[in-house]
Amino acid sequence: MKKFLKIFLWLIIASVFIGTFYFLYQNSKPKTTRYETVTPAKGNIERTTVLTGKIEPRDEIDIKPQISGIISEILVEAGQMVKTGDIIARIKVIPDASQLSSAQDRVTTAGIALNDARLKHERNTILYDKKLISREEYETSETTYRRAEQELASARDALTIVKEGVSRYNAAESNTMVRATIDGLVLDIPVKVGSSVIQANTFNDGTTVAKIADMNNLIFKGQVDETEVGSLSVGMPMKITIGALPELNPTATIEYISPKGTESNGANTFELKAAINVESGAGLRAGYSANATVTLSNIRDVMTVPESVVEFSGDSTSVYCLVDSATNEYKRTPIVTGASDGINIEVKKGITVNAKLRGAEITDKE
Predict the structure, then answer these.
(1) How far apart are the first and last CA of the chain?
(2) Minimal CB count within 10 Å: which of 12, 151, 331, 341?
C-alpha cells in the first residue's frame, strides 16, 4: 500500500513538472502579429442625423368661456370631431350680487317711468280728441310712452342676462353656450359638470373648457444640436419613426429652424418644426414621441474603405498598404478622404481600388 502511494505521489509531481515546463515553453515561443486584409470598394456614402421630438398639431386651440359660471352640461367628449359653432358645453350663471341689485333697480325705475308715461299719454289722448292740445303734443307723449315700454323691456332683459346669462332676444347666441371655434378633433375636456369656470380678462387667462386641433395638419417638433444645425435647411425632407407605431413611417419637410438656441444639460439645441405629409401621417395622435431621420448628404458610386482602417493625425489621414505578403510588411500611405457615414469613408485619392490595406489585428503563435 505504501509503495502504491509513493508511485502515485511521484506521478503527481511529474505531471506538475511537465505541465509547468510546457506552459513556460509555450510562453517563451516568439509571437507574430498578422492583420486582416481590407480592399477598397465602390459604394455610396449617406450621412444622416437623427432628431428626437414629438408629433403635435400645428394649431391646438383652447376653448374658453365668454362668461363666468358653473358647467351645467358637457355635450362632447375627447376623440369626437366637431365643427365650428358646435356647442361644447353650457354654463349656469351665478349672478353677482351688486350687478343683480343694479339690474333689479333698473327694472323698478323703468316700471315707474312707464306708468307715468302711460298716464300722461292717456290724458293727452283725451285732450287731443277734444282738440284741446296740438297734434305735436299728442305725438310727443305717445313717443315718450313707447320709449318707456322699450326701456322696461330692455331692463327686464338685462336682469335676465344677469340672472341666467341668456337674452330673450338672442338666446341662440347666448354667452352661456361654449362653442367650437374651429373644425377639428376634441383632444381634451379638462373640466367636469359642476366645475367653476372663469371668462378670460385682463388679469386672468380664463378656464379652458376644451382643447381642439386639426389632426389633418400635424407637425414634427424636435430639437437639433448646435453641431448639426448648420447642415440643415428649410425644405429638407425627413423620415419619421414612431415607437408606438413601428409600421407607420410618415414623411415630413422642414419648415422652421429656430434662429436662437436654448441651453439644456450644458448643450445648446435649436427648435425645429417639420410639416408631416397628411396621407402618410394618417392614424397619428397628438403627443406621440418620434425620431426624425434627415439625410445630410448622399454621395453615390465612390471608392470607400472602412473608417476603422484609416489613421487620423491632425488634419492628415493615411492607411497602411501591403507591400510584401511574404514578410507581412505594410507601408504608411497618405490619402485624401471625403464624406463619412460613421462606418465607411470616401477616399478621393492616394490609393487604388486594388490596394490591400491593413485591417484589424490578428495575434497567433508560430
Answers:
(1) 46
(2) 12
For the chain, residues classed under CATH 2.40.50.100 are 62-93+171-213
* DSSP classification of residue 277: P
CATH for the 50-57+215-296 domain, from 3.30.450.20, 2.40.30.170, 3.90.1150.10, 3.30.930.10: 2.40.30.170
CATH code given to domain 62-93+171-213: 2.40.50.100
In this structure, the number of other CB atoms found within 10 A of the CB of residue 69 comes to 20
Whether residue 220 contacts residue 238, with contact meaning beta carbons closer than 8 Å, is answered with yes
Q: Taking each helix axis from N to C terminus, what angle separates 97-129 and 135-164, rounded to the nearest 10 degrees?
A: 160
Cβ atoms of residues 51 and 223 within 8 Å: yes
Give the containing element (helix H, strand E) for 317. strand 316-324
Query: What's the grid cell of residue 274?
Result: 417639420
pLDDT in tens, 102-157: 778 888 888 888 888 888 888 888 888 888 888 888 888 889 988 988 888 888 87
Decide if 292 contacts 239 (C-beta within 8 A): yes
For residue range 19-63, list pLDDT tens digits in order.
676 666 556 555 556 778 888 989 888 888 889 999 999 888 999
CA distance 175 to 91: 8
Class of 97-164 per CATH? Answer: mainly alpha
Tell how far CA 109 is from the center of its chain. Answer: 58
CA 329 to chain centre: 57
Q: Are 108 and 237 in contact (CB under 8 A)?
A: no
Q: Where are the alpha helices (DSSP H) in the chain?
A: 2-28, 97-129, 135-164, 226-229
Q: Give the C-alpha separation, 61 to 276, whole Å.
A: 19
| pTM for this prediction | 0.59
